[in-house]
């Protein structure tokens, strides 16, 4: 790829593909430049440093979330947003972990439009500003939590572990000593995190409707 064909978007998309395969810890300007077939210094025309690169990756994931139709009812838009966010985050678990660990922020106009769309749906429901912020944070917590739970172990057993965590739990959970964990363990290790998210959304939105009715 010739230098003049580079753009910030191409650099970020190449970096996103790299971390999806190798993880964030393996990412460097040198390795990314090699992926693009350019010198590492040429990347600095498009990203300031690794922090800017990570922010850009977070932004690209947020930007991939489609905005729900503003003509739809507010509750439908909230559900569509949550579903689309979950799909985007589980598709890029390495980037998700940088967001949760506060190592990256989605700093782009496109990412802000996605956030603005969700806030708009909550405001349309009739919430005031402080309540909108509380519900927004609760929703993002549900979405992040479900996506994290679904992607645990997605990269396999870490290099410094000999056993997958699910296998360790099965081996260590002795019914006589841990009766409650033993009882729910089969359901725990086979949980459908997408279904769990839908259930939690139902509970949150049911409570929100009741609060608005009061």
TrEMBL record:
Keywords, alphabetical: DNA-binding, Transcription, Transcription regulation
Xref: SUPFAM superfamilies: Homeodomain-like, Tetracyclin repressor-like, C-terminal domain
Protein name: TetR/AcrR family transcriptional regulator C-terminal domain-containing protein
Top-rank taxon, per record: Bacteria
Residues within the DNA-binding region(s): 28-47
Residue stretches making up the HTH tetR-type domain: 5-65
Coiled-coil segments on the chain, per record: none
């Amino acid at each position: 790829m010739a230098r003049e064909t580079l753009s910030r978007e191409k650099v970020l998309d190449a970096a996103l593909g790299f971390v999806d395969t190798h993880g964030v810890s393996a990412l460097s300007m040198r390795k990314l430049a090699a992926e693009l077939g350019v010198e590492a210094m040429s990347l600095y025309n498009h990203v300031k440093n690794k922090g800017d690169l990570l922010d850009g990756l977070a932004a690209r994931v947020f930007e991939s979330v489609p905005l729900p139709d503003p003509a739809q009812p507010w509750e439908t838009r909230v559900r569509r947003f949550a579903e689309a966010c979950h799909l985007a985050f589980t598709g890029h678990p390495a980037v998700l972990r940088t967001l949760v660990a506060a190592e990256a922020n989605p700093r782009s106009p496109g990412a802000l439009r996605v956030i603005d769309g969700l806030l708009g749906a909550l405001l349309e429901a009739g919430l005031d500003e402080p309540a909108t912020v509380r519900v927004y944070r609760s929703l993002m917590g549900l979405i992040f939590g479900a996506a994290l739970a679904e992607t645990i172990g997605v990269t396999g057993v870490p290099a410094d572990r000999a056993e997958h965590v699910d296998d360790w739990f099965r081996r260590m959970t002795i019914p006589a000593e841990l009766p409650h964990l033993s009882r729910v363990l089969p359901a725990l290790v086979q949980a459908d995190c997408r279904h769990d998210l839908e259930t939690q959304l139902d509970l949150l939105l049911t409570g929100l409707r009741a609060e608005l009715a009061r």
